[in-house]
Amino acid sequence: MSQEVNLNDQVGAMTTHEVHHDEHHGHHHKETFITKYVFSQDHKMIAKQFLITGIIWAIIGGLFSVMFRLQLGFPNETFPFLENILGKWAAGGKIQPEFYYALTTMHGTVLVFFVLTAGLSGTFSNFLIPLQVGARDMASPFMNMLSYWFFFVASIIMISSLFVQTGPASGGWTVYPPLSALGDASEGSKIGMDLWLIAMALFVVNSLLGSLNYISTILNMRTKGMSMTRMPLTIWALFFTAVLGVLSFPVLLSGFILLLFDRHAGTSFYLSDIFLASTQKALPNEGGSAILYQHLFWFLGHPEVYIIILPTMGLVSDVMSANARKPIFGYMAMVGSMFAIAVLAFLVWAHHMFVTGLNPFLGAFFVLLTLLIAVPSAIKVFNWLTTLWRGNLRFTPGMLFSIGFVSLFISGGLTGIFLGNSTLDIHLHDTYFVIAHFHIVMGVSAFFGMFAGLYHWFPKMYGRYMNNTLAYIHFWITLVGAYLIFWPMHYQGLAGVPRRYLDFSGWESFNQFDGLNRFISIVTIMVFAVQLLFVFNFFYSIFKGRRVTTQNPWGATSLEWTTPINPGHGNWEGEIPEVHRWAYDYGKDGRDFIPQTEPISANESPESKH
Amino acid sequence: MAQAVPAEQKWWSGGKSPFNVEYGKLMMWYFLMSDAFTFGAFLISYGTIRFASNSWPDPNEVFQSFPGLGSGLPLLFVSLMTFILIISSVTMVLAVQAGHAMDKKSVVRNLVLTIIGGIAFLSCQAWEWSHLYHEGAWWGSNPFLNADGTKATTNFSNFFFTITGFHGFHVFSGVVINIIMLIMTLNNVFERKGHYLMIEKAGLYWHFVDLVWVFVFTVFYLV
Q1: Could you tell me which residues come within 8 angstroms of residue A402 by beta carbon, excluding any fewer than 6 positions away?
Q2: Contacts of A22 in chain B (CB under 8 A)
Q3: Half-sphere exposure (CA, 13 Å, Cβ side) for A554?
Q4: How confident is the model at residue A609 (pLDDT cuts 50, 70, 90)?
Q5: What is the CA radius of gyration of chain B?
Q6: What is the pLDDT of residues A102-152, one digit of tens each?
Q7: What structural domains and CATH numbers belong to chain A?
Q8: pLDDT at position A607, please?
Q9: CA-based nearest distance B37→chain A, Å
Q10: Using an 8 Å Cβ cutoff, are A594 and A581 in contact?
Q11: Residue B74: inside a domain
């Protein structure tokens, strides 16, 4: 709250010293349980709120996938316990077709938005930006708090849609009209769809409030000496992520508003020439365009995947450099490639629409721009590999997940080159090949980046370590499991197996994969169980984990490790440290690492070119 | 930067601004960029649908009434609305200017004028909406024929009410913000702070809303 006040002191009376600012935060206000844990304005607490809400969402979203994998793997079995949980949606222990679509829709929505956007950016932007740039808190802690509470309300509304009589939204996570616009078209397009849209609109507000804060904090509140090119790559990544969010989510909001009008005000923005089989009626709507919605949706939808993956790229860069005891390779190339990705993110959306009636001539440009993204992505991958090259690797759980991230990002990225071609897309669109591609490249790999960040910064968050043995089990089973689940899906996709089908056993062309589907489902259940192990490890370690005894347990250079082990609101006691060098002085002049706060000494070798 | 800050002075320390811009203004600019994308998406959607249609109603035929003067006066009323809104931008500039000079009385006067302008614009919009409503136009219904005499889709009124409504909602928020600014000014909040930067941020928003109207006006009434 007081940053502005302080700046204003400066504006008003130029004589005030910055010491004044520090004193202001030196003594803590009396905090009640409510102000400390619930309506907190401390960026660290807000980060934990985002994180724990995200974990709850991840369990729910993951559980959805287990449920529909049960159906896909064992289409002829019945699971009576499903009826106990889901009631009429799993009558007789079999998931009903409408609910199958609801499960896939909500799985996508929850994981993409509530876990990998809010849970990921919300956690690490809030936690790391002030700590790593050297600020007492976010530019506006109050707006930051509002951001979380908008997310919370959005979450409540989204959850409530699971309990309405006609079920949650079920038109796929992209909610394309006309299906999503017409309540008569499907059960999930009734009240569940409205709740979905309202929750998502609130989610956009959450994202906007958060992102504005992240951007202004990074641009405006860095400590003395923290020039932009001395910032850890995490901060750069979170910066680009926030910019993407600020510029793409509003377009989604517009699209949703028009959709709401189509649903309830009799407008025809997306509707034209429709005959509805369920009511045997021709609708009067005329002049609209369903493709228009897809443009509006994917103008967010594509940047959205970078909103998901960019933060993890930053986290992985920092975790990897610290645990390879080597400077990150090609710092400026890393920043430049993230910038390139952020720009290209806005220029490729129509590659999601190659087969929806888009002009093929237009498609050619989107193919070119899409394939261009391979360049910055490859630069980043090679920089990570060269960072590892001849490093003094410490295989901490964070490091393992970072390496796993790079592996998955390569595997998933390569299939993106296939899908970026509009001609190949005629064959591959809407198949399991697409499922495999995006789950590996932005689903699982983003989770790996997030896990890397969590294991690495957990000691800073809670002053305790997570259990290493459980972490190693978590890592290996998740890595192997992720490949076992998604690798075979490429073959299914190449064979033409379509996504979003309830049951393949009746199809001559696809029932050769029955055994494979069963295998995938079993692995899915195992991987899900291991995630629960992680959740246990997380919560157990908050209370019972081994205590952190030193300020800088990983021997890292960046500023967050100069704060007390359990920093209070305001982060540093006394003055905020001054920064004298970049964040990657590992293994320099025979020293293991040199913190950013240490002045360049006279006989030090020149600062590495970055 | 609004205030006179020596160029060489850098508060390059925690919580201070490397760019010599206070964070609130930075946030407002980024918010406006975001909002510009919201309006941009609306207007581009409108353009897409309109140019995909064979024909479209002629705005000179649709918007031709003036309260008290009857019909046959194309675009006269909307010109008045636009004039009011632009004048309110001028008074907003004067309020910001007065804030820089720490002239409370002038700030109050100009804020009041801006608020009156905003309310006047909203009232005009309310009249125009109700007039069109009585002619049979609303979301989902459009009585106006295309310029070529054929029956038009409802999307003419759909887009008109949605986008001018969304803009009107922004004007309404701006009026509320300005009323809050006025109350804060009257309570000497800014006098105590020693500056009127909040007024400047409210002004940024107000000018943005005006600017959006210029685009809305162009694409709905002129083209």
Answers
A1: A315, A316, A319, A320, A323, A384, A448, A449, A452
A2: 14
A3: 32
A4: low
A5: 21
A6: 999 999 999 999 999 999 999 999 999 999 999 999 999 999 999 999 999
A7: 41-274+282-566 (1.20.210.10)
A8: 67
A9: 6
A10: yes
A11: yes
A-chain CB neighbours of B38 within 8 Å are 250-251, 253-254
The two three-digit tokens of residue B213, written as one number: 């109207």
pLDDT tens digit sequence for A308-320: 999 999 999 999 9
Average of per-residue pLDDT values in chain A: 92
Give, in order, the Cα–Cα distances in Å from A99 to each of A155, A163, A164, A168, A234. Answer: 20, 12, 12, 8, 39
Indicate whether B10 pLDDT > 60: no
The verdict on residue B10 lying in a domain is no
C-alpha to C-alpha distance for A401 and A360, rounded to whole angstroms: 40
**HEC string for A328-353:** CCCHHHHHHHHHHHHHHHHHCHHHHC
B80 in contact with A, Cβ within 8 Å: no
B126 and A CB contact within 8 Å: no
Digit-coded pLDDT (tens) for A374-426: 999 999 999 999 999 999 999 999 999 999 999 999 999 999 999 999 999 99
* Partners of residue A307 in chain B, C-beta under 8 Å: none
The answer to whether the CB atoms of B26 and A215 lie below 8 A apart is: yes
- Above 80 in pLDDT, residue B17? no
User: Which are the contacts of B134, defined by CB distance < 8 A and separation ≥ 6?
Assistant: none
Nearest CA in chain B to A270: B49
Identify the closest residue of chain B to A576 by CA–CA distance. B14
Q: How many CA atoms lie within 13 A of B70 on its CB side?
A: 1
Q: What are the tens digits of pLDDT across the range B153-210?
A: 999 999 999 999 999 999 999 999 999 999 999 999 999 989 999 999 999 999 999 9
CA nearest to B35 within chain A: A250
In a domain, B15, yes or no: no
3-state secondary structure chain B: CCCCCCCCCCCCCCCCCCCCCCHHHHHHHHHHHHHHHHHHHHHHHHHHHHHHCCCCCCHHHHCCCECCCECCCCCHHHHHHHHHHHHHHHHHHHHHHHHHCCCHHHHHHHHHHHHHHHHHHHHHHHHHHHHHHHCCCECCECCCECCCCCECCCHHHHHHHHHHHHHHHHHHHHHHHHHHHHHHHHCCHHHHHCCCHHHHHHHHHHHHHHHHHHHHHHHHHHC
Predicted local confidence at residue A16, as pLDDT: 33
Return the CATH number at B172. 1.20.120.80
Residue B133 near chain A (CB below 8 Å): no
Confidence tier at A477 by pLDDT (50, 70, 90): very high
Q: Which of B12, B22, B27 sits opposite A7 (nearest CB)?
A: B22
Q: Which domain holds residue B122?
A: 37-222
Question: CB contact, 8 Å: B146 with chain A?
Answer: no
CA of A348 vs chain B CAs: smallest distance (Å): 17
Residue B189 CB: number of other CB atoms within 10 A?
13
Contacts A136 to B, Cβ<8 Å: 14-15
pLDDT in tens, A1-49: 334 334 333 333 333 333 334 334 444 556 788 888 889 999 999 999 9
Domains identified in chain B, total number: 1
Whole-model pTM: value is 0.92
Alpha-carbon gap, residue A424 to A419, rounded angstroms: 7
Residues of chain A with Cβ-Cβ distance to B4 below 8 Å are none
Any domain includes B16: no
Q: pLDDT digits over A83-102, tens only?
A: 999 999 999 999 999 999 99
* Contact check, Cβ <8 Å, A4/B22: yes
> In B, which residues are within 8 Å of A268 by CB distance?
140, 153-155, 158
Over pLDDT 90: what percentage of chain A? 85
